[in-house]
UniProtKB/TrEMBL annotation, chains A, B, C, D:
GO terms for molecular function: tRNA (adenine(58)-N1)-methyltransferase activity. Residues 62-222 form the tRNA (adenine(58)-N(1))-methyltransferase catalytic subunit TRM61 C-terminal domain. Homotetramer composed of a dimer of dimers. Keywords: Methyltransferase, S-adenosyl-L-methionine, Transferase, tRNA processing. This is tRNA (adenine(58)-N(1))-methyltransferase TrmI. Gene3D superfamilies: 3.10.330.20, Vaccinia Virus protein VP39. Belongs to the class I-like SAM-binding methyltransferase superfamily. TRM61 family. It holds the Pfam family GCD14.
Amino acid sequence: MAVFEDESEFIFTVDGKQIGTHKGIIKTEELVDKPFGGTFHTHTGQKFVALRPRFVDEIYHMKRKTQIVYPKDMGFILLMLDVKEGDKVIDAGVGSGAMCAALARAVGSCGKVFAYEKREEFLKLAEENLRKWGLLDRVVLKLKDISEGFDEVVDAIFLDVPDPWNYIRQCYDSLIGSGNLAIVCPTTNQVQQVVDELQKNGFFQIEIWESLFRQYKTNPERLRPFDRMVAHTAYMIFARKKYFKEV
Amino acid sequence: MAVFEDESEFIFTVDGKQIGTHKGIIKTEELVDKPFGGTFHTHTGQKFVALRPRFVDEIYHMKRKTQIVYPKDMGFILLMLDVKEGDKVIDAGVGSGAMCAALARAVGSCGKVFAYEKREEFLKLAEENLRKWGLLDRVVLKLKDISEGFDEVVDAIFLDVPDPWNYIRQCYDSLIGSGNLAIVCPTTNQVQQVVDELQKNGFFQIEIWESLFRQYKTNPERLRPFDRMVAHTAYMIFARKKYFKEV
Amino acid sequence: MAVFEDESEFIFTVDGKQIGTHKGIIKTEELVDKPFGGTFHTHTGQKFVALRPRFVDEIYHMKRKTQIVYPKDMGFILLMLDVKEGDKVIDAGVGSGAMCAALARAVGSCGKVFAYEKREEFLKLAEENLRKWGLLDRVVLKLKDISEGFDEVVDAIFLDVPDPWNYIRQCYDSLIGSGNLAIVCPTTNQVQQVVDELQKNGFFQIEIWESLFRQYKTNPERLRPFDRMVAHTAYMIFARKKYFKEV
Amino acid sequence: MAVFEDESEFIFTVDGKQIGTHKGIIKTEELVDKPFGGTFHTHTGQKFVALRPRFVDEIYHMKRKTQIVYPKDMGFILLMLDVKEGDKVIDAGVGSGAMCAALARAVGSCGKVFAYEKREEFLKLAEENLRKWGLLDRVVLKLKDISEGFDEVVDAIFLDVPDPWNYIRQCYDSLIGSGNLAIVCPTTNQVQQVVDELQKNGFFQIEIWESLFRQYKTNPERLRPFDRMVAHTAYMIFARKKYFKEV
């Protein structure tokens, strides 16, 4: 990943190819075996710093065809889903694969993500993104309509579809007792429908959250927020499975 | 973990002991081999649901002597630090151990957290908490003043001390090139000092963030936020190491 | 109004009576003809500053039986309603009278507020509050159910009732062309119903807003927000009257 | 004011002239004696609604050379300054005149605003704006550097200059006892300096606030906030004058 002084960024693989930028050509062969954090030059002499891209950088630059879960919500969702090394989780629908990748990182190399998507073009895009990020072996991609239910029983489910209230029973059936469910939806009307269904279907400890993240300018003598910010991405709904019958 | 209908929560180990609550005694021996998510009764017949505590539940109920990093910031910090399976990271100062535990979960069983704390009572408390959460083997606890510097070179550093601007050089020296630094501080004056030091000491891609999380009441026919919310915990500062000299 | 060093406040009339406080008795006769802003003592020698109460102070200390519109929303509503000297406006329902008083201040001594309330106990309370604040002569209080409509045609209407969607047509009929309507409601479900009715009933330039106000601690060496804040009061909906038929 | 179906707005005087728009020409002579709220057509047959501009509309469309105080903060400042009919207030510096006009509306026809500005071009612009809004007779414009102090003693002062901490003593000298001061500044560094000076110079009940206003889309079946919002305009600082000596 190259970052120029004007803060423009280019993510690429160091494979010997040349990368064209508005600041000249980056010859990636010159970067082989060089340390990250170093300063280099394009063929026109423009400086850039070579950085190891973070996962958040990959997300901002990823190829996408859908709205994705942004880092401001992603980290909180991972915590509320309690996803950890070795867990088995379901991601439905996959979309462009950003949250799927985040779950795959969290379950680690001995965990597994079962990723459902009914639109083939999105599943292929997600596969492409996951392969690039080296996470494909942790994910089982499934081209399937989730109205038929899921094939696994898992620790946690992340549900990101336009009509999540239609799949609450399917989520219930595929969660272990006290397993965690997270649902994101952009409108208040959707939240109302989802919460109503959760309450009717054995879910417990339901919480609804939204986040606002505000960034500040980095002039220490004039410390102040930026003028504008993201006002809304999605409401986040969390719930845990409780058995209906007493045991 | 037992959750009563009044939403009161009790976290305990299922070890055969009895747990006293305002709703009667929980006999943990009755829970052995029972599934999480089931409903049980105290000796007075009060119902509770037995849940597997999430890490966020552990944090809310943990024994602490210091301000801790809250989940609303914790997930975002883990993403911005790009901590993943196998990473080596530094946590300074440890405090009560909440963020240390979050880092330990993220690096997985083959990663390592080097945790610095100069106050012995806090280090012991952190050790106790980490042991309870089964994370102690991933953490190297060090009773040490960080003004002398760190003993390792790592992928990422989390710095949470009252005067972070005094340790920027030490952080620089212990990060790999393009390694990630996260600093939290509650006041704008601290942010000003930290950012000034970061800019003078080879850090790059500096970002300052704060988060506001707002929770909604779960009545779907009267969907609205709660009346009050957390207004402030800490400002989060992120930066990446750039080498001074061109390479 | 007396403000003690512990920030406790007492609002009273300087009429010669004695005011009992946790810091001793304030003899108001000693304050006659003394300037506001001066420091005085209770009978036990405790210091207080005598201030002319602002309208916001009166609101915070007012006798109320209902939820009131808070200053954070009040000033914005007055601007969006475009209320100014000499205007005629409707306030329905009056409740405890806080917003009614704000409107009365804004229309000035030659304007008029027509204030509707169907519950007699609230109307009496509002009358009492308005008299105390010297605003009663600008307000016409009406004990009346607004489902029958309003008796006037006015520049602006402020509607604060539990079921505002039922009175949109009445508001339309009592507004001049391009007149301004403001509605407050606490839940998203109410907002949905109100906006739907506004769109069906000739309203225009509909805007929905909510405000978050965050206060900072006043230590200049440790500038930071308070820990907690108000997360929600009400959604504010604004609209303007458009004639159905082309003219 | 004409509002087209694409929400584009044009503010003009109905004086018989023609107004060119991207939707065709508006012949203002056709609007004479027509009611506000009516629907009319341009010469190409495009529909528009004629509305009486609110003060907030005037502000959004005003000619300006400076950053102005936005409605989200303006209404709250007027309340905290407790400005009402008949008051005398100081506005320094005037800038483009938006807040000056808001103060002039609040003091009414029998109140007065003393408006200080040291840059002649801004004073002329403010004069032009105030004349257009019909508020010039309530304002005394003064081309003067406020470091020399103010000529009046007033109920309230609004201070909006780059270095407000340099004029705290002048504000103190020109306020009645318990009079209200409001200061706006965009950076935390400025807030720190201002609060420090206020505390040293006899001010009392100091409060620091910031506001976030979030707007929602008006589709009642998909109620949700807009994607982006204003993140910051200025911090608002309020204080009241206390006499140094006991009286």
